[in-house]
Amino acid sequence: MFKYFLQFIALGLLIGAPVIMAQSPVPAGAVVDKIAAGFQFVEGPLWHPDGFLIFSDIPASTVYKWDPATGNTSVFHKPSGNSNGLSLDLQGNVLLCQHGKRRVARRSSDGSESAVAETYQGKKLNSPNDLTVKKDGNIFFTDPPYGINSSQEELKFYGIFRYSPAGELVLLDKSLNRPNGICFSPDESKLYVNDSQALKIYVWDVQADLSIANKTLFYSMTGGGAADGMKTDTEGRLYSSGPGGVWIFSPDKKVIDKIAVPETVTNLNWGDTDYQTLFITAGVSVYSIRLNAVGAAVSAETDLMPQGFELAQNYPNPFNPNTTIAFTLSQATDIFAAVYNERGQQVYELTRHRYLPGRHQLAWTARDEQGKLLPSGVYFCRFEAEEQVQVRKMIYIR
Question: Which of the four pLDDT bands, split at 50, 70 and 90, describes residue 274?
């Protein structure tokens, strides 16, 4: 894993405006880690609810999976239709913006694909680029022409669209030259979209009928390069790819900080069990950095999760010596989990942490607190989630 010390550039020195550094979510002395490399052109990072990162390699027509436990990368979905942006629908299926197939598609859990949106008023879309899913299931996406040449264009404009759960495709705006990155404010009352080559970020008010209105210039970046993927955190800060790395803005349009990245940033997203890690796709590599912030609108499917929490049976079971314990939360919850032997003695503390809604995984290697391998036998995994307790029996065979 290659590490680059971040260069926290006071942007006020570059553009003549003051920077409110006190609000920066970037810890002093933080580092950006290169966690995967050697691809062709990466995009669309997405933290999967099963506890791993997926991302697109557009020219390779492949979605890759990065395992945080091992640091290894493997193929998640291929061919991907030259996918770019990725997201999740309400059921936890992966949504893909496919340049090659000129559509938004859905990948089911069995790996099969189905079209979500591919034509508007009988004409093919250009090449859907990025998307975000509202908590009610509506899919908002941008449709610039980056995946096609001008002779293939049928729409003759580059739109921002909404696809409803009922199957209706609605054009929201066609005023931008190259609409690209797209995301909501934490309360979903505002929609941010950037105009890539113009380096401008715009914001609209989301209306009760899900149209967008009151278009306003949020910020105009300077420097070489382009604007691309964007996300917000729970405090309403906006994170946008831009010249030199990731630009961080306060909700009132002030530049707070900039995360320097050694390659051209294409997109970014939140992940890890607490959603305080920002994953960044850039050039041929994927980077990550821990921040003093929590990602907003982590995934729409959390609204459909069971109330409280669910503890799954460990897998594999019986096991030797590695096993995985998965649990699902419907809301942010303080979790204490530990492993006990048959005499009721605690042998290992798995976690004592606050987790966001979603599916999470913990690993146990059949060792005690001192790292000593335990004897074969029956063990119990006990989870405490506020006022709820769940226990699962585990069988360890050496």
Answer: confident
Residue 2: pLDDT band with limits 50, 70, 90: very low
Element (H, E) at 378: strand 377-385
- Just give the CATH number of 32-304: 2.120.10.30
* Residue 194 burial by Cβ neighbours in a 10 Å radius (0-12, 13-18, 19+): buried
HEC letters along 281-329: EECCEEEEEECCCCECCCCHHHHHCCCCEEECCCECCCECCCEEEEEEE
Percentage above 70 pLDDT, the chain: 91
Burial class (CB in 10 A: 0-12, 13-18, 19+), 5: exposed
Burial class (CB in 10 A: 0-12, 13-18, 19+), 205: middle
Give the residue from 244, 249, 127 showing the smallest Cα distance to 183: 249
Beta-bridge partners for 266? none
- So what's the pLDDT on residue 297? 59
Residue 172 has a CB neighbour count (10 Å cut-off) of: 19
Residue that has been written with the tokens 């893909």 in this structure: 96
Mean pLDDT of 179-192: 96
Q: What is the second-level CATH architecture of the domain 310-396?
A: Sandwich (2.60)
Residue ranges of domains in the chain: 32-304, 310-396
Torsion of CA 100, 86, 286, 268, to 10 degrees: 120
